[in-house]
Write a structure and sequence with these properties.
There is one protein chain. This protein is α/β, with parallel strands linked by helices and 599 residues long. The chain folds into two domains: 2-212, no CATH class; 227-594, Alkaline Phosphatase, subunit A, CATH 3.40.720. 49% of the residues lie in helices and 10% in strands. The chain has helices at 2-5, 9-33, 38-48, 50-71, 74-99, 114-121, 123-147, 152-172, 181-187, 197-212, 227-237, 276-282, 299-308, 322-325, 336-341, 360-367, 392-402, 439-462, 484-489, 521-528, 535-546, 569-586, 591-594, and strands at 249-255, 268-270, 286-291, 346-350, 371-373, 409-414, 432-434, 469-475, 497-504, 513-516, 549-551, 554-557, 560-562. The chain has an eight-stranded mixed beta sheet, with helices on both faces. A three-stranded antiparallel beta sheet has the order 11-12-13, with no helix packed on it. The chain has a two-stranded antiparallel sheet with strand order 2-7. Helix 2 crosses helix 3 (38-48), helix 6 (114-121) crosses helix 7 and helix 12 crosses helix 18. The longest helix has 26 residues, at 74-99. The protein is globular, with a radius of gyration of 27 Å.
Length: 599
């Protein structure tokens, strides 16, 4: 009994209190992530994802220790910690409510944008936000004054604690580096979903999702990278400017999951050809197959490649989603959008869905689009039967409405009609897939038949326009619906090839079949359409002649596929020049931008 009484109860109570604060605060973050559903939050923490929940608690404990050592008091550290927790958690709940996406690390930079915050949340919540800020500042000031009176021993404990927790936080900040131990611990149980940050946070916890969106090094620095070397590349490929060059309308159409099932081994389509309308156009123009990075997903990465001309294959493995991990780090980013805007184009992005997917709203702003039309701002929003998504036909009507102007237009459309889930969309399913006749596959066949029909109708309407108009149409990836048997029979490039075509309403493009990668699209279109090329585009078309398509582990050369690139010295020099420019823009000093290489 005496031993029981002699236990350091005061210390144990303090430890228990701190741990309780940490667990409760992490549960609070889960509540804000799940519309304050206590059932979901508790199941996440203590049933479904316990390991990830307590890994998040460990991170919060280190942050709590850092605050307390900084302020020199556990009590004051607790107050500031709770204020930060309430502030970030509330902001996460509001952002989820308004934009269907969680708070990202970059969002914390917006804390001083008082006017924007007031407009978004309204006056009452804005006043509460200001109250939290004022309270936090007062606590910090009071803590700083009080910490000066601490004894020598307490100051040393405080300093050691501050150095230790600062070091740990700095290490946590490198979460996206391959060797990071915390990332490895998460990887044992985490299923990262980069294409939907909402689901990513759901599945890994608020802390896991937040850490996932911390900065990551885009590329390893090439050994010969320097300003002089970039200047050498620029001089080799820089184009002469022609102020009288033609400025036709340019339309990008990235069609969700649009591909040709008949290219797959073990699959035979009966009941007709769902791509009949598509083929009738593609066979008369510049078209073929495009190499997609992933099977069943990766939309944003393909879009990034098509708009920027940069290849995901050159990035570090941890750079899994450029839209969420790279582009938001920049105030502006060179792309086809910027190139055309400098030539007097109006630029519009259209996506018949919400703005949260892949941080598109922020990314499009960084690229420099003049406007972004989504499901809430589009005028044409009709759907097909029970399909929950806006139809391709409606999306094309939105594009046509933007072309009623004499100013040259660049329109970038990302469709949704053929997005999963595929079942229960249509009452009649005329196509049969021998070899994998699931309801999802049959519904998908009807989906792409409708997309094919809508595309042909759209292109016919473009033929009537008085202005020359060029179109690049492509599918971003295959749908992830095929059986294990079909996937096994088509391992490699077949599961990554989608359809693409380029169309000219003046019918000046050659009827040629090629295999390509999406980062070549703009350069290839400008070359085939005989438009003014940029220096970067000259580099791309030079590389395309030697290496027509590639992604990690898939290289297409001389009409053959391989797992590695087979480059001679001349080809290697071109490839390295491309690598240097991509590093220069994404992780270097952007010397090539200063040389007007993208104009």
């Amino acid at each position: 009994m005496q031993k029981f009484r002699n236990l350091p109860w005061q210390l144990l109570l303090k430890i228990g209190g701190v741990l309780s604060v940490i667990i409760v605060s992490n549960l609070f973050f889960q509540l804000t992530q799940n519309e304050f559903s206590f059932d979901l939050a508790f199941k996440f923490a203590f049933s479904w994802h316990t390991e990830k929940f307590f890994l998040g608690c460990l991170v919060l404990l280190i942050f709590y220790g850092w605050l307390s050592s900084l302020l020199g008091s556990l009590k004051l550290g607790s107050i500031v910690y709770l204020l930060v927790t309430i502030g970030i958690g509330s902001a996460n709940f509001l952002k989820m409510n308004y934009r269907m996406e969680p708070i990202y690390p970059d969002d914390l930079k917006m804390i001083i944008e008082f006017g924007m915050i007031r407009d978004i949340v309204g006056l009452p919540l804005f006043l509460l936000f200001l109250l939290l800020i004022v309270a936090g500042v007062c606590v910090l000031f009071f803590s700083w004054k009080k910490s000066l009176k601490l004894g020598k021993k307490q100051q040393w404990v405080r300093i050691v604690g501050f150095v230790l927790t600062s070091s740990l936080l700095f290490y946590i900040g490198s979460f996206n580096q391959q060797a990071n131990l915390l990332r490895k611990a998460y990887n044992k149980t985490a299923l990262w979903i980069p294409y939907s940050q909402k689901m990513n946070y759901y599945n890994t916890g608020f802390i896991g999702g937040f850490l996932y969106n911390l900065p990551v090094d885009a590329m390893e620095k090439p050994k010969d990278y320097s300003k002089a070397k970039i200047k050498e590349v620029v001089d080799d490929y820089q184009a002469e400017k022609d102020s009288t060059a033609e400025k036709p309308n340019i339309i990008y159409v990235m069609s969700e999951s649009f591909s040709d099932p008949q290219r797959l081994k073990g699959l035979e389509i009966l009941g007709g050809d769902p791509l009949q309308d598509y083929r009738s156009v593609a066979e008369q123009t510049y078209s073929g197959q495009m190499l997609s990075q992933n099977y069943g997903g990766g939309t944003a990465n393909i879009e990034f490649e098509a708009l920027t001309g940069f290849s995901m294959a050159l990035f570090n493995a941890q750079m899994t989603t450029s839209y969420t991990m790279l582009v938001p780090e920049f105030d502006s980013f060179p792309s086809l959008v910027g190139t055309l805007k400098k030539r007097g184009y109006e630029t519009t992005a259209i996506h018949p869905y919400n703005t949260s997917m892949y941080k598109r709203k922020d990314v499009y702003q960084t690229f420099g689009f003049d406007q972004f039309l989504d499901e809430k701002t589009m005028k044409h929003t009709a759907k097909l039967e029970n399909n929950p998504y806006i139809s391709d036909a409606s999306a094309y009507k939105e594009v046509l409405a933007q072309l009623k102007t004499k100013t040259p237009q660049f329109l970038h459309l990302v469709t949704m009609q053929t997005h999963m889930p595929y079942e229960d969309k249509y009452t009649e399913l005329p196509y049969i897939a021998k070899g994998d006749n699931s309801s999802a596959v049959r519904s998908y066949l009807q989906d792409i038949a409708y997309s094919s029909e809508a595309l042909k109708s759209f292109l016919k309407k473009l033929d009537k326009l008085p202005e020359r108009t060029l179109v690049v149409f492509w599918g971003d990836h295959l749908p992830g619906i095929y059986s294990d048997t079909i996937q096994a029979a088509n391992q490699g490039y077949r599961l990554h090839e989608t359809e693409f075509l380029m169309y000219d309403n003046r019918h000046k493009l050659p009827a040629q079949q090629v295999t390509t990668s999406p980062f070549y699209f703009a350069a290839d279109l400008f070359q085939q359409g005989q438009l003014q090329m940029t220096g970067f585009q000259n580099l791309l078309v030079t590389l395309q002649k030697e290496l027509p398509a590639f992604e990690k582990g898939m290289y297409y050369q001389s009409g053959q596929w391989g797992k590695e690139a087979r480059l001679n010295n001349a080809q290697e020099k071109i490839y390295q020049a491309y690598q240097l420019i991509q590093y220069d823009i994404t992780a270097g000093e952007q010397y090539s931008l200063q040389e007007n290489f993208f104009e």
